[in-house]
Amino acid sequence: MVGGESFIGHLRAYLRFCRLEKGLSANSQDAYVRDLTRFGEFLGQRPVAAADLNLLRSYVDHLQRNGLANRSIARQVSALRGFFGFLVEEGQLRADPSELLRAPRIGSSLPKYLDLPAVDRLIDTPDQQSKIHVRDRAMLHLLYAAGLRVSELISIRVADVDEEAGTVRVTGKGNKQRLVPIGRAAIQAIANYKNTQRAQILKGRMSPFLFVTARGSAMTRQGFWKLLRGHGRNAGLFKSISPHVLRHTFATHLLDRGADLRSVQAMLGHADIGTTEIYTHVMRSRLKQVVDSHHPRARESRKASPRTGVTQP
Question: Would you please indicate which residues are annotated as catalytic (active-site) residues?
Answer without folding.
Answer: 149, 173, 244, 247, 270, 279
